[in-house]
Amino acid sequence: MGILIYAEVEKGKLKKDCFELASYASQIADIFSFEVHAVCFNADNPEELSNYGIKKIYNYRNKNYFNFDATIYSDYISKIFIKKFRFLILSSSSNSRYLGGILSITLNASYISNVISKFESNSSIKVIRNSFTNKAFETVEALEKNVILSIAKNSFEIIKKSFTAEIEEINFEMINPMNNVTSIEKSENKVSISDADIVVSGGRGLKGPENWHLIEDLANVLGGATACSKPVSDLGWRPHSEHVGQTGKPVSSNLYVAIGISGAIQHLAGVNASKTKLVINTDPEAPFFKAADYGIVGDAFEVVPDLINKIKEFKSLNS
Amino acid sequence: MKILVCISHVPDTTSKINFSENNTLFDNDGVQFIINPNDEFGLIRAIWFKEKMGATVDVINVGTKNTEQTLRKALAIGADKAIRINTISKCSKVVAKSISKYLELNQYDLIIAGRESIDYNGGMIPGMISALSKINFIDKCTHIEISNNNVKAVREIEGGVENISTTLPLIISSQKGLVEEKDLRIPNMRGIMMARKKKLIVIEDYGFKTSSQTIKFEKPLSKNKVTLIPSDNVDKLIELLNKEAKVI
Ligand SMILES: Cc1cc2nc3c(=O)[nH]c(=O)nc-3n(C[C@H](O)[C@H](O)[C@H](O)COP(=O)(O)OP(=O)(O)OC[C@H]3O[C@@H](n4cnc5c(N)ncnc54)[C@H](O)[C@@H]3O)c2cc1C
Ligand SMILES: Nc1ncnc2c1ncn2[C@@H]1O[C@H](COP(=O)(O)O)[C@@H](O)[C@H]1O
Do the beta carbons of residue A186 and residue B160 sit within 8 Å? Predict the structure, then answer.
């Protein structure tokens, strides 16, 4: 019996959340005296995982095909899992969540998503998850023997623990993909809101699209993604893909910077899961201050340029 | 073309979240329930197919009698028929198995379920239905066009989109983008009157076993108060972000 993690790969590179998953899995493994193995597709350097407690890595390879297909990937993951595993650990990325529902059926597993805790004991599998759009924590018990957990982003520390991992390279074929992907459109060097550790977001307080260089420049110096409130995307100042909140995207970054956003409940629903929130707003009564960790009551047009310059200085001194 | 839209009955986001029965159940007291927003985007797209292409649109919920008000709302917006599987839905798998069982007995070309419900936030049910019913699945679908049996769709991926071509039967998980926000509809008087005459079929519990159970709910401790920094001292802010929050 053991724990299997699905380590996601993008263009040959292991994604950062793989190491979060590996660290999480190694800690549970200790409770059960299980081993942690990983399965991935087309990783160029799968051995990197051995630094985070992984003992064996199954690396599926197919030179010709790099697109993700949920049925094919879940079939190949099942093939490994049924050998000797009891837990499957996934990230919260789009592709992992796509697989989770399917695999919970093929593996007859209890599936728990948005997980933010480890287990307390090995006698019953109980974990805490985010629910009600992060307004409540729910303790859930898995009732089936096999269990799939998808881990909320940025919820666990990365812990180094080195092994010499055994790597098994396996060929795989893309036979009968579920759907035919005709093309992929990705903005190459932009960090996406759901992947970013830092998100800088602007609201109606910025007055117009011509002022968005403030948001973009701040995001650039911080190495973050840009986002906005709903009215901003409704007004066409920014693309819909940037809209954060109940009807838009959820953000679970380490730092969320809200500039000129009042903090309506529907907006907060999308940012509750972010660890640290910084709010810049002229109105000391703006509801967002109640949800914030740090706040500056001030005019964005004065504070933000100053902040950009000082962070630039700070970064050049500390790099 | 026959379309089935899965409807989850959820508390409006502005409602206060409280729990009862020793913090094991959501407290419905004084809460306004709505069609899950992700399902609503799917429902409106389905009604577009009805109006433009003559599709029929059924809605389904796995739940108790309380959810009928939400199904009636879906009928008032334009769905043709509603189905309720009378189950106290304890876990996503029971919901997915119940809907798949219904699909075994009733054929549909397109099944739509929300990307996730705003209460449970599981994001699991559409994938489960696809595996149970062996139907092609597009998660996080933001656009869909259908002609004859051929489907062109767009799936949102991290940092971009994927253009997909596939065929019916198909299940998609719906979200913002499938229709414009301005296309969302509030039931009008005529719709509400018509909805009263439409069928709401109740099917008895299929009796599937639960796969996971809620032990308890907790509300996050109220947050520490915000640390306010004077607007002329961003150096202090940078120090706090670096040393205290450790985020830069
Ligand atoms: C069903 C429903 C769903 C919704 N879903 C979402 C959602 O998903 N996401 C979302 O964001 N909203 C959503 N909304 C809308 C939400 O209720 C608010 O209307 C919206 O979030 C407000 O956007 P805002 O903060 O940018 O604008 P405003 O509320 O207009 O706030 C602008 C803020 O900028 C400040 N300001 C002005 N000038 C400056 C300056 N020079 N410097 C600094 N600050 C300044 C003001 O003090 C004010 O607080 C939804 C609403 C409904 C009814
Ligand atoms: N009790 C239910 N009855 C019918 N459909 C449901 C139910 N619960 C969830 N769904 C559907 O499944 C989607 C995803 O729900 P969830 O997996 O709970 O996040 C929802 O948006 C609905 O379309």
Answer: yes
pLDDT tens per residue, range A88-142: 999 999 999 999 999 999 999 999 999 999 987 888 999 999 999 888 999 999 9
Pairing label, strands A198-202, A225-228: parallel
pLDDT tens sequence across B139-195: 999 999 999 999 999 999 888 899 999 999 999 999 988 998 889 999 999 999 999
Task: Give the ligand 1 atom nearest the CA of A270.
Answer: 8
> Residue A288's Cα: distance from chain center in Å?
24
pTM of the model: 0.91
Query: Which pair of tokens denotes residue A24?
Result: 């999480």
Classify strands A9-10 and A13-14 as parallel, antiparallel or unpaired. antiparallel
The beta-carbon neighbor of B136 closest among A103, A178, A293 is A178
Do residues A80 and A112 touch, judged by C-beta distance below 8 A? no
**Minimum distance, in Å, between the CA of residue B138 and any CA atom of chain A:** 8
Rounded (10°) CA dihedral B2, B4, B5, B9: 140
| Cα atoms in the 13 Å half-sphere on the side-chain side of B71 | 27
Ligand 2 neighbour B89 (Cβ under 6 A):
yes
β partners of residue B173: B113
Q: Domain ranges in chain B?
A: 2-218
Residue B219, number of CB atoms within 10 A of its CB: 13
C-alpha–C-alpha distance, residues B130 and B171, integer Å:
7
Indicate the residue type of B59.
Answer: V
Give the domains, in start order, of chain A with CATH numbers.
2-171 (3.40.50.620), 198-317 (3.40.50.1220)
Of A141, A241, A297, the CB nearest to B213: A141
Q: Provide the sign of the torsion angle of the four alpha carbons B39, B42, B47, B48, taken in this order.
A: positive
Handedness of CA B202, B208, B212, B215 (dihedral sign): positive
Which B residues in the span 130-149 are in contact with A, Cβ-Cβ below 8 Å?
130-132, 136-140
Rounded distance, CA A278 to CA A276, Å?
7
Q: Which residues contact B220 (CB under 8 A, 6 or more apart)?
A: A134, A135, A136, A137
What's the CATH code, domain B2-218?
3.40.50.620
Q: How far is CA B131 from CA A206, B86, B97, B100, B136, in A?
A: 46, 23, 10, 9, 8
ipTM field: 0.90
d(CA A267, CA A279): 13
* Measured distance CA(A197)–CA(B137) in Å, rounded: 30
